[in-house]
Amino acid sequence: MDTPEMQQFKGSWKQLKGRLKEIWGVLSDDELDRFEGKWDQLVGYIQEKTGEARESIQQKLAAFRNS
């Protein structure tokens, strides 16, 4: 069962993809499409790709969701 947070994440995927590419320019549409609706995997992939701390990534994503 999806949490309200996950439902919002799935509902705004196209908008989120654009924002993710602004924040982390190393991500491509194809890479991001693999993680649609898979929050934890997306965070892990961004961490692996950029070397940024997981907490920092989660904070940036949460700030986007809340804006």
The CATH H-level homologous superfamily: YjbJ
CATH architecture: Orthogonal Bundle
CATH topology: Protein Yjbj, Chain: A
Averaged pLDDT: 85
Count helical runs: 5
The helix/strand series, from N terminus to C terminus, equals: HHHHH
Radius of gyration equals 11 Å
Largest sheet: none
Secondary-structure-derived class: mainly alpha
- For the termini, the CA-CA separation is 25 Å
Name of the CATH first level: Mainly Alpha
* Strand portion: under 5%
General shape: globular
Count of strand segments: 0
Task: Give a structural overview.
The chain is an all-alpha fold and 67 residues long. The chain has a single domain, classed as Protein Yjbj, Chain: A, CATH 1.10.1470. It is 73% helix and 0% strand. The protein has 5 helices and no strands. The radius of gyration is 11 Å and the shape is globular. The N and C termini lie far apart (25 Å).
Question: How is the topology of this model organized?
Answer:
Elements (H helix, E strand, L loop, with lengths): L3 H8 L1 H11 L5 H5 L5 H12 L3 H13 L1
Summed up:
With 67 residues, the protein is mostly helical.
Task: Give me some keywords for this one.
single chain, mainly alpha, 73% helix, 67 residues, 0% strand, Protein Yjbj, Chain: A
